C-alpha cells in the first residue's frame, strides 16, 4: 500500500499558499476536527514553498511540551540556549521570559535576512504560553506571516485565539473530505481504481475524516475485506476492529461515566431512537451530557425528535465492547420500549423482530415471518435470511423456508438454499403414494397443495439459475392432479417460460408466457414473471419501446422478479441506444442490497460508455462489473465479454483475448440469453487480433442465428457491426427490413448509415454522423465521419475540409479507439507536399517556407494548392484540422 498522500482540498491549498507567499497580505489559520486533514494540508503547502524566497519556521504544538517555555519553537532555536534558559543557568542567558522572547524575535529576524519569513504552526491550540505569545507578536508586528492549524472546539491559548479575533489573520474551517476527494485518495493509496459502492461506503463510514479513513482501510486490508479483482479494489463491508482503530475512536469518545455509557449503548443498539424513549430508559442529564460532548446527535423532523450516534464507528466500538449479557438485555429492552409505544414508525416491526431474535425473546413466528418478508422486499437479504431462519425455528412453516431459501439464493449461496428447501417438512421426499399433493397422511400432512407447488418452483429456480442444472426447466408439477388449480399451474408455466428464454429457446418461452397471460385464473405473481419474459422477447425482437412499457407494469420490489425485469429493461435500452435512460437505470441505488443487480448495472454503465466512445471509462466500469459478479456465474460471462469488447476496440488484443477466455469459462447454458453479447465481443476480439475476416464470419453466423430466433433487435446490432467492418453492400437491404419492424430511433439511424456506406455516399455519411451524434453514440459518429472524409477527399469535394474538422473533434472525444472504420484513407501526399503542409499548418508564411526549403515562393504556393485539393480544404485556415485527421501527420501538426 502506498503512503497516504495529500489529495483534493485544491481551494483550501490555494488559499493557504496565497497567504504564505504574501499574496493576501495576511496569515491564515485552518480550523477543523481531529483527523480531518489539517496537518497534511499545512505540510503540503509548506513543502512546496521555495526556501530561498520564503524562509520557513515550522512549529508543532504538543501536549507534552505545553508547560515548557518556548518549547514549541525549540526546533528553530539553538538547543543549548533554550535548555540553559529553561534551567535558569548559563553565563550568557537572559533568564526572563521577556528577554527570551526578544532573543527569539532576533533569531527569526536573522533567519529571514530581509526576506519574508513564514511561521507555520501545526496544532496551535497546544502551544506553550510563551510560544503562543511570540507567534501573536510576530503576526501583530508583521515580522512574519503566520499560517497554521487549530482543532475546532479545543481549548486555545488567548494569544492564539486573538490572532483571528483581532483580525491579524484569516481563519477558515476545514470541512470533511468530499466523496470525490475520498475516492481520489483511496485510489492513490491502493494504486488502482476503487469500486464506487465501496468508495462511497468508506466515505460515509469515515464521515470525510482522513485519519478514520486510513485506519478503516488498514483494518479492512488486515482482515482480508478489502480485495483487488480485475484491477479494481472492492470492500466487502467488514473490517477488523484493530487496536489502532479502536484507539482513534476511543480518543474521540473520551472517558465515559456509567450513566453516559448507558446512553451510548442504548443508542448504539437502537438508533434511530426517539428522544422521549431514550430519556425514559436512561438518565436525562446523561443524555444532555452525551449531546454536549458531541457523542450523540439529536434531530427534529416534524413532531419527532430522533437520536443517533454522532459517528457510525462509535456504534461499532460500543457494541463490540458491550458484554454479551448486557447486549442481550438491551435489545430486549428496546423491543419492549418500541412495542409499548405501538410501533407506529415505518420499520419498527422489522427492528423489533431483529431485536427479539438477537435477545432470544422471539416467540411469534408470524411476526418474524412478516418482518423477514419486509426485509426481503427492502433488499436487506442478510437480515431477511436471519429473520426467516428464526421464524422457521419458531414454527413458521414453509413460508419461512421460502424466504430463507430465496435470500440465500440471491446472495450467491445456492447450495445452502437447496439444503434449506430439502430440510423443510417433506421437501426432500420422493413422490411416493403417501406424499402426493392433496394426500394428508404423510409427507406434507399440514401443507396445502400450493405450498408443495411453491416448494417445487423454488427448488427448480435455485437448481437452474443457482446450480445451473439445465434439466430443471423440464420438470413439470402435477399438471393432471385434481387438486392443482389453474392459478397454481400458471406459476409453473411462467417459471418455465423464463427458463426457456434464458436457455435460448425463445419460441417455447413466448408460447408459455402467452398461455399464462391468456389464462384468466393466472395470479398477479405469475403474470409478472410472464411479462418479464415477454418484455425481454420484445426487446430482443426489436421492439424496445413496447418492452419498456411492459416492464413498467411489473412490481419489481421482489428482488428476484426485479432481476428478471431489469435484464429485460437493460436489454431494451441498449438495443434502443437510449443512453440517458441507461444512465438513469445504472445509477439507481435501489439495487445495492443485491450484488448481482449492482453488477449488472455496472455492465449497463460500461455499455453506455462504450457506445459513447469513452473507452477508458468503459473499461473501468467493466472491470468493476467483473469484480462484483465473479463470485457467482449467472452474469459473470456478460461482464467479462463487455471487458473483452472494450479492450478490442482499444486495440489491446492481449487483454481482449484473456477477457474473452474468461467469459467463455464463466458462460453457463442457463444464461444463454446473454450469448449475443458474447458473440459481439468475440467478433471484435478477432478484429483486434488482425483477423477481420474471422470477425465478419462470427457476426454473419450470429446474425443468422438471431434471425432464426426472431431476435431482430439483437440482429440489427450485429448487422451494424458488419457495416462497420465493410460489409454494408451485403447487409443494407436486410438492415432496411429490420428497421421496418423496430420502434426506436437507432434503427432508423443504422438504416441511414448502412445505405450511405453501401452507396459510398459521402454527404449521406455526414448525415449518419449527425444522427449518431444526436443519440450520443460518438464512436459510431466518428466512424461515419471517417468514411465520409475518405470519400469526399477522393472526389476533391469542398465539403472534405468541414468533414475533417468534425472528424478531428470526434476522434478527440473517443480517445483510445482503434477500429478499422476509423482508419481514414490518406491522400497520396508526396514527401515535399507533407513538409510544406506541416509548415503552413504551423503558420509559417510561404516566403519563409521557400527560404527554409530553398524553393521559390511560387513553387511553395503550387504545392499548397495541390495539398488543398487532395485534402479537400479551401485554404490554410482548414489545413491544420485536416492534417490532424491523418494519423501519421497528427503529431507533427
UniProtKB/TrEMBL annotation:
The UniProt record lists the keyword Ribonucleoprotein: no
Stretches the record annotates as Disordered: 419-445
PROSITE patterns: HTH_LUXR_1 (PS00622), HTH_LUXR_2 (PS50043)
The HTH luxR-type domain, residue ranges: 822-887
Protein keywords: DNA-binding, Transcription, Transcription regulation
Single biological process term from Gene Ontology: regulation of DNA-templated transcription
Pfam family, one: GerE
GO MF term (any one): DNA binding
Entry keyword Glycoprotein: no
PANTHER family on file: TRANSCRIPTIONAL REGULATORY PROTEIN NARL-RELATED, TWO-COMPONENT RESPONSE REGULATOR
Protein name listed in UniProt: HTH luxR-type domain-containing protein
Amino acid at each position: 500500500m502506498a503512503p497516504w498522500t495529500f489529495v483534493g482540498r485544491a481551494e483550501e491549498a490555494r488559499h493557504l499558499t496565497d497567504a504564505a507567499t504574501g499574496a493576501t497580505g495576511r496569515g491564515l489559520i485552518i480550523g477543523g476536527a481531529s483527523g480531518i486533514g489539517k496537518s497534511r494540508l499545512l505540510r503540503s503547502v509548506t513543502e512546496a514553498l521555495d526556501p530561498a524566497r520564503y524562509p520557513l519556521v515550522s512549529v508543532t504544538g504538543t501536549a507534552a511540551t505545553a508547560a515548557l517555555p518556548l518549547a514549541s519553537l525549540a526546533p528553530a532555536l539553538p538547543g543549548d540556549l533554550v535548555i540553559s534558559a529553561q534551567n535558569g543557568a548559563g553565563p550568557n542567558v537572559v533568564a526572563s521570559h521577556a528577554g527570551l522572547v526578544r532573543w527569539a524575535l532576533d533569531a527569526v529576524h536573522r533567519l529571514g535576512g530581509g526576506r519574508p519569513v513564514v511561521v507555520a504552526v501545526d496544532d496551535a491550540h497546544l502551544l506553550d504560553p510563551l510560544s503562543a505569545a511570540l507567534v501573536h507578536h510576530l503576526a501583530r508586528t508583521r515580522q512574519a506571516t503566520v499560517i497554521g492549524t487549530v482543532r475546532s472546539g479545543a481549548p486555545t491559548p488567548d494569544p492564539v485565539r486573538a490572532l483571528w479575533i483581532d483580525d491579524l489573520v484569516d481563519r477558515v474551517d476545514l470541512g470533511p473530505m468530499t466523496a470525490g476527494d475520498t475516492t481520489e485518495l483511496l485510489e492513490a493509496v491502493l494504486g488502482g481504481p476503487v469500486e464506487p459502492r465501496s468508495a462511497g461506503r468508506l466515505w460515509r463510514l469515515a464521515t470525510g475524516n482522513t485519519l478514520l479513513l486510513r485506519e478503516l482501510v488498514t483494518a479492512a486490508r488486515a482482515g482480508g475485506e478489502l480485495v483487488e479483482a480485475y484491477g479494481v479494489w472492492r470492500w466487502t463491508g467488514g473490517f477488523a476492529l484493530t487496536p489502532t482503530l479502536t484507539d482513534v475512536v476511543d480518543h474521540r469518545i473520551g472517558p465515559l461515566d456509567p450513566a453516559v455509557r448507558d446512553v451510548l449503548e442504548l443508542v448504539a443498539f437502537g438508533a434511530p431512537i426517539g428522544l422521549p424513549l431514550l430519556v425514559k430508559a436512561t438518565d436525562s442529564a446523561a443524555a444532555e451530557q452525551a449531546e454536549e460532548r458531541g457523542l450523540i446527535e439529536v434531530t427534529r423532523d416534524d413532531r419527532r425528535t430522533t437520536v443517533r450516534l454522532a459517528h457510525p464507528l462509535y456504534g461499532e466500538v460500543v457494541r463490540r465492547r458491550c458484554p454479551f449479557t448486557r447486549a442481550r438485555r438491551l435489545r430486549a429492552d428496546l423491543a419492549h420500549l418500541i412495542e409499548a409505544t405501538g410501533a407506529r414508525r415505518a420499520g419498527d416491526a422489522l427492528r423489533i423482530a431483529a431485536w427479539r431474535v438477537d435477545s432470544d425473546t422471539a416467540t411469534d413466528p408470524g411476526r418474524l415471518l412478516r418482518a423477514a418478508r419486509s426485509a426481503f422486499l427492502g433488499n436487506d437479504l442478510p437480515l431477511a435470511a436471519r429473520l426467516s431462519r428464526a421464524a422457521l425455528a419458531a414454527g413458521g412453516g414453509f413460508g419461512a423456508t421460502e424466504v430463507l431459501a430465496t435470500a440465500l439464493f440471491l446472495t450467491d449461496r445456492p447450495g445452502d438454499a437447496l439444503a434449506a428447501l430439502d430440510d423443510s417438512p417433506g421437501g426432500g421426499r420422493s413422490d411416493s403414494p403417501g406424499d402426493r399433493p392433496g394426500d394428508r397422511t404423510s409427507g406434507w400432512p399440514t401443507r396445502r397443495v400450493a405450498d408443495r407447488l411453491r416448494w417445487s418452483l423454488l427448488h427448480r429456480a435455485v437448481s437452474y439459475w443457482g446450480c445451473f442444472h439445465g434439466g430443471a426447466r423440464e420438470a413439470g408439477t402435477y399438471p393432471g392432479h385434481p387438486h392443482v388449480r389453474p392459478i397454481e399451474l400458471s406459476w409453473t408455466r411462467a417459471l418455465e417460460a423464463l427458463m426457456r428464454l434464458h436457455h435460448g429457446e425463445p419460441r417455447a418461452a413466448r408460447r408459455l408466457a402467452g398461455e399464462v397471460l391468456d389464462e384468466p385464473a393466472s395470479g398477479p405473481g405469475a403474470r409478472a414473471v410472464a411479462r418479464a419474459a415477454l418484455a425481454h422477447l420484445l426487446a430482443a425482437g426489436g421492439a424496445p419501446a413496447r418492452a419498456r412499457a411492459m416492464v413498467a407494469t411489473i412490481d419489481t420490489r421482489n428482488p428476484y422478479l426485479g432481476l428478471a425485469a431489469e435484464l429485460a429493461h437493460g436489454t431494451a435500452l441498449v438495443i434502443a441506444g437510449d443512453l440517458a435512460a441507461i444512465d438513469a437505470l445504472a445509477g439507481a441505488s435501489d439495487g445495492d442490497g443485491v450484488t448481482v443487480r449492482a453488477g449488472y448495472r455496472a455492465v449497463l454503465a460500461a455499455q453506455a460508455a462504450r457506445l459513447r466512445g469513452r473507452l477508458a471509462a468503459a473499461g473501468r466500469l467493466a472491470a468493476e462489473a467483473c469484480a462484483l459478479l465473479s463470485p457467482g456465474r449467472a452474469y459473470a460471462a456478460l461482464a467479462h465479454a463487455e471487458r473483452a469488447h472494450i479492450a478490442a476496440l482499444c486495440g489491446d488484443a492481449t487483454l481482449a483475448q484473456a477477457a474473452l477466455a474468461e467469459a467463455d469459462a464463466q458462460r453457463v447454458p442457463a444464461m444463454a440469453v446473454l450469448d449475443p453479447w458474447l458473440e459481439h465481443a468475440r467478433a471484435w476480439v478477432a478484429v483486434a487480433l488482425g483477423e477481420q475476416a474471422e470477425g465478419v464470419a462470427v457476426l454473419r453466423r450470429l446474425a443468422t442465428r438471431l434471425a432464426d430466433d426472431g431476435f431482430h433487435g439483437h440482429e440489427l446490432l450485429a448487422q451494424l457491426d458488419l457495416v462497420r467492418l465493410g460489409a454494408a453492400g451485403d447487409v443494407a437491404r436486410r438492415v432496411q427490413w429490420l428497421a421496418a419492424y423496430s420502434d426506436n430511433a437507432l434503427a432508423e439511424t443504422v438504416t441511414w448509415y448502412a445505405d450511405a456506406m453501401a452507396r459510398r455516399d459521402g454527404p449521406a455519411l455526414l448525415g449518419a454522423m449527425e444522427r449518431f451524434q444526436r443519440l450520443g453514440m460518438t464512436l459510431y459518429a466518428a466512424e461515419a465521419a471517417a468514411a465520409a472524409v475518405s470519400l469526399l477527399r477522393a472526389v476533391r469535394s469542398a465539403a472534405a475540409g468541414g468533414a475533417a474538422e468534425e472528424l478531428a473533434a470526434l476522434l478527440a472525444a473517443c480517445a483510445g479507439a482503434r477500429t478499422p472504420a476509423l482508419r481514414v484513407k490518406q491522400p497520396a501526399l508526396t514527401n515535399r507536399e507533407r513538409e510544406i503542409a506541416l509548415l503552413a499548418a504551423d503558420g509559417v508564411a510561404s516566403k519563409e517556407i521557400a527560404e527554409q526549403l530553398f524553393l521559390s515562393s511560387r513553387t511553395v504556393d503550387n504545392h499548397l494548392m495541390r495539398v488543398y485539393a487532395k485534402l479537400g480544404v479551401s485554404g490554410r485556415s482548414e489545413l491544420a484540422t485536416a492534417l490532424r485527421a491523418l494519423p501519421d501527420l497528427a503529431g507533427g501538426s
